[in-house]
Amino acid sequence: MPTTKKESIQFGIMMCFGMVLVMTIYNFYLNGIIGNITIVGAILEFVLAFIIAFVLDLFVFGPNAKKIAFKIINKQTSKIWIVLTISTCMVIGMAFFMSIYGLLVTNFHHGWDVYSILTDYVSIFSNNILFAWPLQILIIGPLVRYIFETFMVNRETSI
Questions:
Q1: Is pTM, for the whole model, over 0.90?
Q2: What is the dihedral of CA 57, 101, 15, 38, to 10 degrees?
C-alpha cells in the first residue's frame, strides 16, 4: 500500500487506469455502443472518464475512504479487512459519482428523456456497483497491489 504522496499518486493512476478501462468497456457493452463508436471516440471517452476518476480518487475518495474505513474498523485489524473496507468505501463513492458521468454519456449517445433521469441513474448505478465491487476486490485491486509492491516499492527502496 502507498505510504507517501508520490506512491499514492502512482497507485491511484494504476488503479484508476485498470478500473476505468474495464468499466468503460463494460458500459459500452451495456449501452450497445460497441461497434457503433469510433476508436477515437472510445479513447476520448476513456480519457475523460480517467481524468474525472483520478481527480475524484486523489482529492475526494482516496483520503475520505481511509477516514471512513478507520471509523468502521481499527488500525489493528488484519490487513485484508483494512483493504476490503477501504476498497468498498472507494467503490461506493466512485460508482455513485461515475454513474452520473455514465448517465451523461448514455444520454449523449441515446438522447435525453427528462422523465426517466432518476430511474436511469438508479439503473446505471446498480449495474456499475454490482460489476465494480467484485472487479475491484477480486481482479484489479489485487493485480494493482501486486504490481505496485513488486515493481514500484521495491525499485524505489533498492536505488
A1: no
A2: -150
